[in-house]
Amino acid sequence: MRVLVLVLVPLLLAAQADALDLEKLTRHVDGRVASYVQTLREWVAVESDSSDVSKRPELHHMMNLTADKLRSLGGKVEMVDIGLQELPDGKSIPLPKVVTAQFGEDPSKHTVCIYGHVDVQPAKKEDGWATEPYNLTDINGNLYGRGASDNKAPVLAWIHTVEAYKALDMELPVNVKFLIEGMEETGSNGLEAMIIAQRDTFFLDVDYIIISDCGWLSRRPALTYGTRGNCYFFAEVEGPKQDLHSGVYGGTVIEPMTDLIGILDTLISPSGKILIPGIREAVAPFSDEEWKMYQDIEFDMENYKEKHLNPVPQVDLLAHRWRYPTVSIHGIEGAFSASGSKTVIPAKVTGKFSIRQVPNMDPATVKKQVTEYLHSVFAKRKSPNSLKVTMIIGAKPWLADTQHSLYEAGKEAIKKVFQVEPDLIREGGTIPVARTFQDVTEKSIIMLPIGGFDDGLHSQNEKMSRYNYIEGTKLFIAYLHEVAQIKKVIYFCVIVR
Amino acid sequence: MRVLVLVLVPLLLAAQADALDLEKLTRHVDGRVASYVQTLREWVAVESDSSDVSKRPELHHMMNLTADKLRSLGGKVEMVDIGLQELPDGKSIPLPKVVTAQFGEDPSKHTVCIYGHVDVQPAKKEDGWATEPYNLTDINGNLYGRGASDNKAPVLAWIHTVEAYKALDMELPVNVKFLIEGMEETGSNGLEAMIIAQRDTFFLDVDYIIISDCGWLSRRPALTYGTRGNCYFFAEVEGPKQDLHSGVYGGTVIEPMTDLIGILDTLISPSGKILIPGIREAVAPFSDEEWKMYQDIEFDMENYKEKHLNPVPQVDLLAHRWRYPTVSIHGIEGAFSASGSKTVIPAKVTGKFSIRQVPNMDPATVKKQVTEYLHSVFAKRKSPNSLKVTMIIGAKPWLADTQHSLYEAGKEAIKKVFQVEPDLIREGGTIPVARTFQDVTEKSIIMLPIGGFDDGLHSQNEKMSRYNYIEGTKLFIAYLHEVAQIKKVIYFCVIVR
Question: Domains in chain B and their CATH numbers?
Answer without folding.
Answer: 3-227+397-484 (3.40.630.10), 229-284+323-395 (3.30.70.360)
